[in-house]
Design a protein that fits this description.
By secondary structure, the chain is an alpha+beta fold. It folds into 3 domains: about 70 residues, Orthogonal Bundle (434 Repressor (Amino-terminal Domain)); about 130 residues, Umud Fragment, subunit A (Ribbon); about 25 residues. The chain is about 35% helix and about 20% strand. The protein contains 10 helices and 9 strands. The protein has a 9-stranded mixed β-sheet with strand order 2-1-3-4-9-5-6-7-8. Strand 7 and strand 8 form a beta hairpin. Helix 2 crosses helix 3. The longest helix has 27 residues. The protein is elongated, with a radius of gyration of 26 Å.
């Protein structure tokens, strides 16, 4: 149980003394000290009071080691966002920070994908990934960049670097959102999502390339979801107007050939 260390951690993070919290909650300072040092066990009324004071669900205070959460997740909790209150699970994310204590963007290359499938939750593995920063992205959110393979998401080309923002609560993913999804079976996939988690416990994944059929994935097979933010590629997507012109020229040529065949047949 992480309750003692969590309330002490949050109290200090808020810059409050034991006297401050005790007075606010109408309890003795020695009682709060006993809770923080695991000498005394709080009753249900004290648990509710502390939960309301820190704006964090009781489940979170008791079950999650808040000292291990990255800064981006702590800020979400402090803003009143707690996934336990919404009935989902708090996903502890392994991350890295720079010397300025701001979170890095880790880079998952094509070669690193196999290792990421099993090491995504291992801080030691995450710590060896290359990192960088994109100055135009918010420091209040957590980002990661993945190199994609294949042509299923054309016109985004194979080898492009796709950056996503970490999704804590999967219910918030909207239909038609593009997401990088880590699955236990396929590993990393980049698809457009149709969210059926609440109703059917699954996602339906669509490709931008119409040559690929959509398919379903059960929520139990999902390990992480990163919502698409941007991509970087040295390739310029093909000009749609050029493609349309070439298609029109091909149709015109085929039409002439068909007419020529019909003319010969009528002779």
């Amino acid at each position: 149980m992480f309750f003692p260390s969590n309330i002490k951690f949050f109290r200090k993070r808020m810059g409050r003394t034991q006297d401050d919290v005790a007075v606010a909650l109408g309890m003795k300072r020695s009682t709060l000290s006993g809770y923080e040092n695991a000498i005394a066990q709080p009753g249900i009324e004290a648990l509710v009071s502390l939960s309301n004071y820190f704006r964090v669900a009781i489940d979170t205070l008791v079950k999650v080691d808040l000292t291990k959460l990255p800064e981006s997740q702590l800020r979400q909790l402090e803003k009143g966002y707690d996934v336990f209150i919404k009935g989902s699970s708090l996903r502890v994310l392994a991350t890295t920070v720079g010397q300025d204590n701001h979170e890095n963007i880790e880079l998952v290359t094509e070669k690193a994908k196999a290792g990421y499938k099993s090491g995504f939750a291992d801080p030691e593995y995450i710590s060896i990934l290359p990192t960088f920063r994109l100055p135009f992205l918010s420091k209040q959110k957590k980002y990661r960049t993945f190199q994609i393979s294949g042509d299923s998401m054309l016109p985004i080309p194979e080898g492009a670097w796709v950056t996503g923002v970490f999704v804590q609560d999967w219910h918030t993913v909207r239909d038609r959102d593009a997401c990088i999804i880590l699955t236990s079976e396929e590993g990393i996939v980049f698809k457009v999502v149709e969210n059926k988690i609440r109703a059917e416990g699954k996602l339906i994944l669509h490709s931008l390339n119409p040559a690929y059929e959509p398919y379903e994935i059960a929520v139990n097979d999902i390990r992480e979801i990163w919502q698409f933010v941007n991509y970087i590629s040295p390739e310029i997507p093909e000009n749609i107007a050029d493609n349309t012109y070439r298609l029109a020229q091909t149709v015109k040529k085929l039409t002439k050939e068909v007419k020529a065949i019909q003319t010969r047949l009528n002779l």
